[in-house]
Amino acid sequence: MSKARKRQLARRYERRLAERRARQRRRRVAIAAGSIVGATLLVVAFLTFVAGGGEPAPSPSPTSGTGPTGPTGAEPGTRTGTVTPSPGPTEVACGAAVPAGADRPKPQFAAPAQVLEAGKRYTATLRTSCGDIVIELLSEDAPETVNSFVFLARRGFFDGTRFHRIDASLDVIQGGDPTGTGSGGPGYTIPDELTGDERYGPGVVAMANAGPDTGGSQFFIVAGPGGHQLDARPAYTIFGRVVRGMDVVRRIARLPIQDPEAAAAGDLRGQQPAQAVYLEAVIVRAR
After folding, report:
1. Is 272 found in the same domain as 130?
2. Does 203 score more than 80 pLDDT?
3. How far is 21 from 15, CA to CA, in rounded Å?
4. pTM check: above 0.85
């Protein structure tokens, strides 16, 4: 890669970083202004549920429960606390064992530090209970997302977490939640990096989210053609592609889930694997 191209990539990243900081400032104002309204709506929603309201309508999408979070004023990369993983199934898939430290609290951060180096290409090896998955990280297409993923991987954030969701309707497996519940994240959010032309075919690795610009640490891997159902609504940043280990992805995708009937009715908790599938470690290499 030429020096001019490296400088161009560095300038593009700086522009996106400045835009993200501006969005975060606007978001903090909006959150402060809407806190009272939000609390009122939560009370109303709770009362509606108690009075006989039901679960939300099924949403066949790679959602995460994380929203805008993270303390203000802290330096990027600052550790802000921990979250505790929820207990997983006692049986581990593919004849594997529970990795050391799986029940230890997982770190939270203020924001990701800048760790990507201009001109370098990155791969990530996901060591799972069922084998290794090697991913080419698309740092030129999604520099902020890849930077966040690499930052978290190098801090051991993913070590001992579980794939908490298998969605057979979309052919996706989902992980990256430190709590294992589908509602956890890294303590901060990152903006979407979308073109509008995303195609979610087999081997695509993309961010889950809870709405625009709410990506965190949860990601999904497309195991089969069902992922193309998301093409009409390209709302999920693609930041990687599987280059080796698609057999492992498909093996995980075929595992039984805890409650197929509940999952079909829209309760995403039913999509938890019946056997624990651990993400034992994520090893990032640069070249």
Report:
1. yes
2. yes
3. 10
4. no
